[in-house]
Each structure stands twice: as C-alpha cells, then as structure tokens.
Design goal:
Domain PglD N-terminal: 5-76
CATH topology of the largest domain: UDP N-Acetylglucosamine Acyltransferase, domain 1
Number of strands: 25
Binding site for substrate: 68
Protein name: Acetyltransferase
Shape: elongated
Family: Belongs to the transferase hexapeptide repeat family.
Oligomer: single chain
Strand content: 25-35%
Mean pLDDT: 96
CATH class of the largest domain: Mainly Beta
Radius of gyration: 18 Å
Active site: 135
Number of helices: 3
Length: 211
C-alpha cells in the first residue's frame, strides 16, 4: 500500500508548503488535513478531515503540520501521536544547512532559509522564506520565524516564541547569549538589541515592549 503524507492545514501556508513536500517526497501520495472539509480538493490534492485521514487504508501515514499558531502545532502533534501517525519534516531544496546543526522533527524550512553552524533547534520549528539562523544559537520547540528573519550568533530563543517578518536579532556572546523568552513575540521589522522576557511583545528599532 502506498505511503501518504498529510499536510495539516490547507490555508495559505499549507499551500506554500505543498510544493516543498512534493519535491522532497516524490513517491508518496499527498493530501491536506483540515478540521472541517469544505472543499474536496485544494491545489490538486484531496482534502480530508483528521478522522478521514486516520481511516485511510494506507500502511504508512505521516503528517506535516503547516499551522502558524505554535500552541495549535503542539496540540495537533499530540493528537497525531495518539493515532500513531508519523511526524514528518520538510526542507526546501534551496535551503542551506552547514556544520553541526541539529533540527527536531516536524520542521518546515522554506525556500532560501539558511542554518549556519553549531545550532540546536527543537521540534516543530517553522522558518519561512529568506530566514537565517547564525552560529551558536539554541532554539526551543514550536518556534516560528516569519519571512526574512535575521537571527545572529549566540541567540537563545525559547519555546513558542514568534519572530515577525523582517525582524533582526543582534548577536549575543558565548558568555552572555541574547535570550528571547518563552512565548515572546518580536514584531515585524523590530531590531532586537537586548534580551526579551517571556511572554512579552516587543516592537520598533530598537525593540521595546509594546504597551
């Protein structure tokens, strides 16, 4: 029986991820998974509800979660594991990954993303187009990079942080990494020059807490 990969989410990001999955997994059947199926096909792929996907007769079923919300990704990952579905990752052909880089399962690395060296990244990392992570960075689970994020060296980003489009995070040092706290949000175009506390939203240049 042919293997199948379901892309969870048929919205804009899911449709952007589809060609990456198609290129990386050319021999596997592809489909979309949604919570409520309003369309039978999207961009040439069948659309199933989660239960319909679970009930497919295929012997090998995996899921790539293409949902922007980090908390939703965490919940959906747990839901997939309950049904013994595999968690797959996808990396665009134009992405660059250099030396000593660890990336957890469920990652989505879009076109022209760049991971340099000595980097550790947790599970369900989303890096949108033209984003990079420089040397000696540590990134937690369920972290999201919008397009064109510049994460320089010696930065630690904790679980569930969101980094907005065009944000720039200045380098830390080996003795004092710059830290983006758990669940923090870095706004679009922000220039982060110092650590951000957990749960705080920062905006502007230099980035300051949003009041």
């Amino acid at each position: 029986m042919q293997k199948v990969i379901g892309i969870y989410g048929a919205g804009g990001f899911g449709r952007e991820v589809l060609p990456l999955v198609r290129a990386q997994y050319p021999d596997e059947q592809l489909c979309f998974i949604v919570d409520a199926a309003e369309e039978k096909h999207v961009n040439g792929c069948p659309v199933y509800t989660f239960q319909e996907y679970v009930d497919l007769p295929h012997t090998g079923k995996s899921v790539i979660i293409a949902i922007g919300s980090s908390t939703a990704r965490e919940a959906l990952e747990a839901k997939c594991r309950q049904e013994h579905l595999g968690i797959a990752s996808v990396t665009a052909s134009s992405s660059i990954i250099l030396d000593s880089v660890e990336v957890g399962e469920g990652a989505v690395l879009c076109h022209f993303t760049h991971l340099t060296s000595n980097i550790k990244i947790g599970k369900q990392f989303h890096a949108n187009i033209y984003s990079y992570v420089a040397h000696d960075c540590v990134i937690g689970d369920y972290v999201t990079f919008a397009p064109n994020v510049h994460c320089n060296g010696h930065v630690h980003i904790e679980d569930h942080a969101y980094i907005g489009t065009g944000a720039i995070i200045k380098p830390g040092t080996s003795s004092k990494p710059l830290v983006i706290g758990k669940g923090a949000v870095v706004g679009m175009g922000a220039v982060v020059t110092k650590s951000v506390a957990a749960g705080v939203t920062v905006v502007g240049n230099p980035a300051k807490p949003l009041l």
